[in-house]
User: Fold this.
Amino acid sequence: MIDNKERMNAKETESKEIESKETESKETESKETESKEIDTEIDTSEIKSKEIGNHNDETACDERVFDPFNQPFEEGRVIYKNRGHYRVQVADQTFDALLSGRFKHEAVGNIDYPAVGDWVLVFLQGGQCRIESVKPRRSVFVRKQKETGGKKMAGGLGTTQEQVIAANVDKVIIVTGLDGNYNLKRIERFITLAYNSGAQPIIVMSKLDLCPTPEVLLEAVNAIAFGIPVIGYSAVTDAGFDALSAELSPTDTVVLIGSSGVGKSTLTNKLLSAPIQKTGETQQHTAKGKHTTTAAQLLQGVSGLAIIDTPGVREVQLWADEETLDQTFDDISTLTANCRFNNCTHGNEPGCAVRAAIESGVLTKERYAHYLKLQREIAFLDRKKQQLESMRNRKQKHHKK
Assistant:
């Protein structure tokens, strides 16, 4: 019995020793495997380190040149724009310029792209000029971009976008002819856009020599201008030119806005004292001119005055808000404030100052009707602006990913 127990104990001891040896063997093999893997990782990292070192050695110079954060930028001003082509003045030199790839990638809508009058940071190398960024604008003249067909435009931002005409301007010269071009409602639209830009508007009524009764038309314009200078001007007799010059300063940047054939280029040449811009004749039977100016361009006069001449505007589509509209129709805003009820709809409510002004002839029905039309147009535009802003935010988030 005892011998059997001793034999069983001996077998158990022998079995445990075998298991112990097998465990030790497996641990040893595992350690050797781990050691080999570590050695392999070290070798691989050394190879990668050598490859990276070689890559850096070969392209270090190129990375320093094209790194957008380490480049020596120059400040310039956009003096010409036509589609995707720009011309930039840097100090006393002028360069043809293109947008950098980074700029085009990060730009979301029309408002982000350079316009004539913009101050920009550019990178110059080998006679080439690349626009990297647009500096903050102190003023910007925009209108609603004309819809050219299709439900959506490039970039997926829809048909409602602003079109930047000029930037960093001090004064907006609204040029209208005292001939068949004369239109008070168009002038009201131009005034609204000018106020929205942040610049000071000036109204120039050209072709004074062709109008038999200029006093009547000028008085009608003054009635809707409310403090804006209104100047009758003749390119033939120079009448009114001194009055216009008195409104301008040698340090001003001004933009000329108006329909084709109203004399913007002729007036530009007169203000610059040089025949720089091409001019053309107006068709007498239609009072319409040809597009002698095909792209916006900034021109510098000897006195220092900078003038942005623009192509003729066929459609004056608003890009403004209710506050700007009230500034244009200041008379109606004042009357509204004098109504008995704050929520007066100017219909049948008692004590309506607007209706009383219309009945007495102080406010014309035509002017009030046009105000209501523009009010509806801006209300619709506000809804479109919200959609545009939502789309822009989505695109910006997509760019950040």
Remarks:
- Confidence is low (pLDDT under 50) at residues 40-66, 149-157.
- Residues 110 and 163 are 6 Å apart (CA to CA).
- The longest helix spans residues 2-66.
- The first strand starts at residue 74 and ends at 82.
